[in-house]
What we know:
Blueprint: H1 17-38, E1 69-75, H2 81-92, E2 95-102, E3 104-113, E4 118-138, E5 149-158, E6 164-175, E7 179-186
Antiparallel strand pairs: 1-7, 2-4, 2-7, 3-4, 3-6, 4-5, 5-6
Amino acid sequence: MVQPSNVTPLSSTPLSSSDDNTFNDAIDSSSHSKSSSSSSKRTRGRPAGSKNKQKLTFVINRSSEHVEKPILIQIPRNSDVIETLTQFARDYQTSITVQTASGSILNATLRDDSEYEISTFIVHGPFTLVSLSGTCINNNSSTTLSSNFDCFFNICFCSNIDQSFMGVVGGKVIAGDDVVLTATIFKNS
C-alpha cells in the first residue's frame, strides 16, 4: 500500500493564492488581445439578406410498417413453390417479391398465351432452376383468412440435356431438392 508521504506531486512547488491570481491575470490579458484581433475579422455565418437559404431537414420515420425486409426462404422437396410463397404471404399478411432462386424442380406449369386464349402446359423434369422472379401482392388490408393475392412469376430452368425453358408460371412449380429463394417482404401502403 502506498503511503501519502511517498506520493510526490507533479509540481514541486505547491500553488498558493497568489499563483491563482497570476494565472487569472494571464487569462484576462490573453482574452483582451484576442477580442481586439477578432473585431478586425469578418463575422461568421450568413450575411443579412443572403439568398443562400438554409436547407430543410428531413425526418425519416424508421418505425414504419411499410419497410421492406430481405429474407431467404427454403422450400422442401415435393412442395409447390408458388403455393408456399402465397401461403407465407397470407400467414404474415405481407406482399412478397422474389429476386433469385436456386435448386432443382421436378415439373412446372407454364402459361401459353396465344392470340385467342390462354392455356397452360406442364413440363416434366427434373430441371435445374436458373431463375425465378416475380411478385405476390396482398390486396386485402384486413387480417381475414380469405386474403386476395395477385401473383405473377417468371421462371427459367434447364435440363441436363441442354434444353432450356423460360416463361410465365401458369400453375404449380414442384420443388426437387430444396429450393432456396431470395425475396423481399413488404406491407402494402
